[in-house]
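Subgroup meeting minutes
Present: P.N., E.W., G.H.
Scribe: E.W.

1. P.N. recapped why we're keeping a running log of single-chain structure predictions: easier to compare across weeks, and new members can see raw inputs and outputs side by side.
2. G.H. added today's entry (226 aa).
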Amino acid sequence: MLEIALYIVPVPIGNLDDITIRAIKILQEVEVLACEDTRSTSKLLNLLGIKAKRLLSYHNYNEKNSAQGIVNLVEAGKTVALVCDAGYPGISDPAYRVVRECTSRNVKIIALPGPSSILPALVASGLGTDSFVFLGFPPQKKSRNTFIENAMNQKTTVVLFESSHRIEKLISRINEIDPERNLCLAKEISKLNEQYFRGNAITILECLKEKNAKKGEFTLIIDRTK
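Output recorded in log:
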């Protein structure tokens, strides 16, 4: 029987086999699933052969009420699992607000290890892994240049995400700042079209000219400044 707690459960980012045995057990036994998108979670449960659960969604636009409601369930004696559409809950999604509500009310949290694109991309990059910082997604407009310049000035390896329709502009800006900086652009980690592009910004930009190269989800690794 599960402890009364909020369980943070990572789910696959591509290959379904990446889910852990422990994560499957939690998803099978938990009473409530708090989801980023109930449709995506329902599809995952079907693929895993897990019977339908009570699904609740948490949203940016209703973050306070949804977080409080989820934590209320745990305090009422329900076992609740927190999942996102893909990867680790709370990494570049609003799940961290649920966790913060738990910590403010002394509700037990059990976080499972599991899939995320950050560590595979970093380890396979060939760049320094002894020290790194994750910066999430660059801002779309306001403060974008400042964000990129800050990333380029780090004394440690930098990991960040970028969308497919802005990745070329990001690499071009990096080229303007430091054309010799070593980079690794990881595409579609754990998916069928997984690729790694390594080299300086010009090399990466040439790779992005390949057919369908700019389609998918990207994790960028930037070498530390010298």
